[in-house]
Amino acid sequence: MYCFVILDNKSRFLDQSFTYHVPEKFENKIQKGMRVIVPFGKGNKNTIAFVYDLVENLTTEFKTKDILEIVDSKALVDEELIDLAFYMNRRYLSPLRSCVRQILPPGKIDKIKEYYYPSKNLKKDDEFYEVFKNKITKKKILNKYNIDEDLLNQYKKNGLIKTSFDINSNQKINYTYIFNLKKDYDDKKLPSNAKKQKEILDYLKYHKDVEYKELLKNTKSSKNSLDSLIEKDLLEIKKLK
Fold this sequence. Notes:
By secondary structure, the protein is an alpha+beta fold. It has eight helices and eleven strands. The strands form three sheets. A five-stranded antiparallel beta sheet has the order 2-1-4-3-5. It has a three-stranded antiparallel beta sheet with strand order 7-6-8.
């Protein structure tokens, strides 16, 4: 599957459609009207893009990059509004990016943080296991440890590490966060004095799809305890609009 996107970039030279491959893990989730994170340019800069169309196959073969992440839990706009954006582009010769922004909720995404964490394939005797054993930002990896972009990409390609994204947005979209235990969670990652974190894990063993406020209330826990478990990559989080 492939998606056609408009980049959220002010440059008039980039005011056009771009094509990206949709990895299999996203095929049942991606929809027209969603935003995604894509690698753009020679440096593969993480860039927000708006999906306006999807196809199973391309009519001509050319090299495409994979999308990295889906930003939204469901489409922000329907096909009628997407058509309206393209109509405004044709009728008034307005930049595509500007037309797309007109149909989206107000606000913008300010910053994207990329995190890395170990997959099951990363062994404890690996040279860099200690670096990746807890969720860590790409910026910190490159600045603090003897790891460069090439090595990082090699670890990703070999399936030794996985990525996740934290998106800082001032858009007024209300989300509900649902928590579950990860299937392969390991509570040995918890220090012996982390009683509240253990209580949260114990609660989630017997309760599924627990909403954020409900989880904190029923376990009488703080946001800090929950954040610590998220950093240790012990929880699955679903974001619902």
